[in-house]
Design the sequence.
């Protein structure tokens, strides 16, 4: 890791170290969602035996796994917005910092935010609901990695829109991943969607990841084919998002928007 990337990571670390509201915000929503959906799934598991009890476990697993995508996307976009809000973006790019180094630093900060934010929710899931997210084995780490990458390419798309439309696109930083949730098949199989929506869901890595998670909870063999499809889709979307980001950054630099963005 070069000094410029480390410098940006250290800058963001200092902001969180000196601001307890920022630290609380990282884990607030994952913990709140886990409490709400955890008690709901606990009720379902105790009120109904058999398949409905299994569905309750899938509900908790879905909440935990989807928070990875939500937190990783928010980690990148909020990190970028911090630079806009502090009027620091122009200063960064008159330095030797390269765009790829900025993105590398934001991805690293996002990964740290995600791990820190999900830690309390994972502990709560185990202590209150006896749900061990790592019970299916090492395959869960591959699910985690794919959902983390999915959040990253969504964030790069949002950052690209910020370059093009400025502060008018800020709302997408808070809403885009939530808007994708119905198509991600987090809490139900793809067959629950209307037929005309299913191709859109199949274009997202999340559908295959959550189908694999439900299979793992049902003690089925690891669905390596689904995991492979999710990985291929993630790589394709990541390459596309990176290309769009590079193009929008180039246009913003030509227009001088790096200085005026957010005003």
Sequence:
């Amino acid at each position: 890791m070069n000094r410029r990337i480390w410098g940006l990571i250290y800058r963001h670390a200092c902001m969180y170290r000196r601001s307890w509201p920022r630290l609380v915000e990282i884990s607030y929503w994952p913990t709140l969602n886990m409490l709400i959906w955890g008690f709901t799934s606990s009720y379902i598991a105790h009120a109904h035996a058999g398949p409905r009890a299994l569905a309750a476990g899938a509900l908790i697993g879905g909440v935990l796994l989807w928070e990875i995508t939500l937190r990783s996307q928010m980690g990148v976009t909020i990190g970028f917005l911090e630079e806009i809000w502090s009027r620091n973006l122009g200063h960064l790019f008159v330095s030797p910092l390269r765009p790829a180094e900025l993105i590398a630093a934001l991805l690293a900060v996002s990964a740290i935010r995600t791990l820190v934010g999900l830690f309390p929710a994972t502990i709560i899931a185990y202590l209150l609901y006896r749900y061990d997210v790592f019970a299916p084995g090492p395959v869960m780490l591959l699910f985690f990695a794919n959902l983390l990458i999915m959040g990253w390419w969504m964030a790069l798309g949002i950052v690209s829109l910020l370059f093009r439309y400025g502060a008018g696109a800020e709302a997408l930083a808070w809403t885009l991943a939530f808007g994708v949730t119905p198509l991600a098949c987090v809490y139900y199989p793809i067959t629950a969607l209307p037929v005309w929506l299913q191709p859109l869901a199949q274009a997202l890595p999340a559908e295959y990841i959550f189908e694999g998670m439900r299979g793992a909870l049902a003690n089925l063999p690891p669905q390596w084919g689904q995991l492979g499809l999710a990985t291929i889709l993630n790589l394709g979307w990541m390459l596309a998002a990176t290309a769009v980001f590079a193009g929008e950054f180039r246009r913003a630099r030509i227009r001088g928007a790096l200085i005026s963005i957010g005003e």
User: Anything to note?
Assistant: The two ends are 33 Å apart (CA to CA).
